[in-house]
Structures are given as structure tokens and as C-alpha cells.
């Protein structure tokens, strides 16, 4: 019985989370849950539907220049001010993203405070978007490169080529 118990403990101890479960834990540790989440498949369906939505990229310029979601509008993070979106219809859906969703959640909070009614944070950011098989673009051309902000976050990119 002791050998069985020991083997069982060794087996259980050797189990590890899958890459996606670990990514989920990491992402959730950064979220404050102040902005509703939208998942890549949900955003993609909205994009295909033709619904008028605003997709905002809350990364810095050097990150945005590497690649972005098609038709995303760069608003940045450090210098973000709601005046950048003052001509947007506040009743339309706004989806904000960054690398993993932490900075975009902060931008989403600012948009909510400014009166935007339907604001979402893209779960897992551009890393998760790309890992789920969705395309990113450099200007108008499809790209395999994703600016991953740092090596700490870059390890989570499983599809595509990281840029630091």
C-alpha cells in the first residue's frame, strides 16, 4: 500500500497545467474584471457580421507597427486620452486589446467613464488572438509577427513569431 501511495503522489505531482490553462491563470492574475471580456471567436463573428464596431489597439506605437488586428485603430496606452475617440458613437460596440489584456482593460475603464455604453476587453489580447489561429496584419498584409511586449509574455505565443 505504501508503494501505491508513493507512486500515486509522484504521479499527481508530475501533472502540470496545459499551456492554455497556465496562460489563463497568468492573464487572470492581471485582470481586475472591470471591463467585460470578449473572446477571439466572438470578436471574429462580429467582424464577419458587418456590425459597426470600433477595435482599438491600446499598445504603444512600436508594438502596433509590427502587427495588429485588421482595421484596428491605434490609440496607445501611455498617452491615451478619450479625446482621441471623441468623434466615435458612444452607443456602438468598442473592443480594446493590447498584448495580454491588462493595458486594454485600463483603457476600457476610461472609455466607460467617458460614457461609452458597450466596451469589451479582448481576452488574452493579441497573443491569445494569434494563438487561436486568427490573422494579424502589418499595414494591409498578413503577418506572422506579433510584438509580445516582453520575453515574460512572449513565452505564451505559440503561433507566430515573437518580436520584442
Automatic annotation (TrEMBL):
Keywords: Signal
Position of the signal peptide: 1-18
Superkingdom of the organism of origin: Bacteria
Pfam family, one: Rhodanese
Rhodanese domain: residues covered: 49-138
PANTHER family: FAD-DEPENDENT OXIDOREDUCTASE (PTHR43031), PYRIDINE NUCLEOTIDE-DISULPHIDE OXIDOREDUCTASE (PTHR43031:SF1)
Matches recorded under NCBIfam families: rhoda_near_glyco (NF045521)
Protein name: Rhodanese-like domain-containing protein
Organism: Putridiphycobacter roseus
Amino acid at each position: 500500500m505504501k508503494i501505491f501511495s508513493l507512486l500515486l503522489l509522484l504521479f499527481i505531482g508530475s501533472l502540470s497545467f496545459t499551456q492554455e490553462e497556465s496562460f489563463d491563470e497568468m492573464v487572470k492574475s492581471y485582470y481586475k474584471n472591470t471591463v467585460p471580456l470578449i473572446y477571439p471567436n466572438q470578436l471574429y463573428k462580429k467582424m464577419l457580421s458587418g456590425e459597426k464596431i470600433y477595435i482599438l489597439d491600446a499598445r504603444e506605437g512600436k508594438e502596433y507597427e509590427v502587427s495588429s488586428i485588421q482595421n484596428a485603430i491605434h490609440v496607445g496606452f501611455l498617452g491615451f486620452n478619450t479625446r482621441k475617440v471623441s468623434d466615435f458613437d458612444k452607443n456602438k460596440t468598442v473592443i480594446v486589446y493590447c498584448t495580454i489584456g491588462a493595458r486594454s482593460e485600463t483603457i476600457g475603464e476610461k472609455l466607460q467613464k467617458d460614457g461609452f455604453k458597450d466596451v469589451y476587453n479582448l481576452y488574452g489580447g493579441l497573443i491569445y488572438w494569434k494563438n487561436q489561429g486568427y490573422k494579424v496584419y502589418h499595414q494591409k498584409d498578413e503577418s506572422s509577427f506579433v510584438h509580445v511586449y516582453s520575453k515574460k509574455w512572449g513565452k505564451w505565443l505559440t503561433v507566430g513569431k515573437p518580436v520584442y
